[in-house]
Amino acid sequence: MPSDEFSITTRRENLDRIARGTWDLLVIGGGITGAGAARDAALRGLRVALVEGEDFAGGTSSRTGRMVHGGLRYLAEGHLRLVAESLAERAVLRRTVPHLVTAHQFMLPVCGSNLAMARMAAGLALYQGLALGRAVGPARLVSARRARSLEPLVLPPRLAGGAIYWDCLTDDARLVLALILDAHRRGAAAINHAPVVDLLRSGNRIAGAAVRDALTGRTFEVRARAVINATGPWSEKISAMAGRCALRLRPTRGSHIVVARSRLKTHRAIIFSSPRDRRNLYLVPWGKHTIVGTTETDYAGDPEAVCATTEDVDYLLEAVRATFPGACLEPQDVVSTFAGVRPLLDRPGIAAYRVPRDYRVVEDPPGLISVAGGKLTTFRRMAQDAVDLAARSVGGAAAQQRCRTAGVPVEPPGEKASPPVEGVLRAAKHEMAVTLCDCLIRRLRLIHELPDQGLSVAPEAARLMAPILGWTEAERQAQIEEYLAAVAQTRRWQARLEQDDADRR
After folding, report:
1. Sign of CA dihedral 309, 314, 320, 326
2. Model confidence, pTM
3. Which pLDDT score, from 0 to 100, does residue 127 have?
């Protein structure tokens, strides 16, 4: 059984293991769905390898609104099946990952008339009913006066009252890491910074992948009886290596802003709407900060280059000012931003924010199972369906194994240690952080949680990581420069503001 160490040494050992022999299953992608699939397969007793092109949770899975929710807003759009499925999966995650999926109270201001309150009462009753006795907590309506007393900052026009209910929050990046670590303990071999450069074939069947180790430049082959493509916004790129496009995507950019909680303090998470297009947005208290999101715009660029734009930040600030006028939030209050690309299924002819959050799992060509769409809350079910299809494709004993992830708890991986010393050392020795960005962005979140976005601690963090990872002085400096570039990307939205200031001067 593998040890609790999950370091650069573990990565080298796993890389050598992956390059030898034939695996039952190769999972491409170390986001939430790929991590869930690797754990699912390991629990079934399958020999499973996972390769991630960047870092675990390096894409969309670390850039969410931190919510594991049933999707109350989807009721108004008639997506009852999606809501029921999300509520069921929320219950499973509360039972199996209770240290990372925690209950939190929400408020949804209701604006308009008594009719709006009556509709909200019906919606809440249906939402609670669809939970089938697994509701996180009670739900109720409150008057406008009571809503203002509970959340003094919430003062939208024509406030009729508020809906108070319970849902869940999570640390998305650490949830992914917890799944990866649990899969590792159960025998899976996982490595990050190892992009797939081609798919291998045996006749008309996909039989593995050619993988490049980004740290050394070495390219090697991974042989597997089935391959799961769980790469999210990169899934079409992987499918193209097989000469097919099994799933057509509608990529959208979801941007968020992070502000100090002292500037936008609420006692609950708040669901509110944009005055521009009436889209639902959310405010999530997060330690000493508040996260506000999300935008929803079509995106055709490189998923690795996605970032919040000036227009995105303007849109979110406009919405905050309308619902929380007393906060008087200005652009200079934005500590950080982050954006992710949602791999939604293509639905031509409808607005991006109305695209359903359903998912599909397909095998095309034989041996290549692609999974896309969905949302954070439903990742476990997506992973189960993908592994089910992969196991049937492999056949034999693999096809007889059943999913166990709904009943087997995820072992806690240890809490995020205080930066910079304890957290940096834990990230490098026990969480396979092999770059400074791995450590400060996804393991410790300093890019979003310090006023200077971790710039002042980056040199010390790099100094601590260097002997563990064997960096030369030049490599250490390169790591710092890479982190500076990542911080600059979160600030690109400021360029137009700075230009406007320069023009005024």
Report:
1. positive
2. 0.95
3. 94
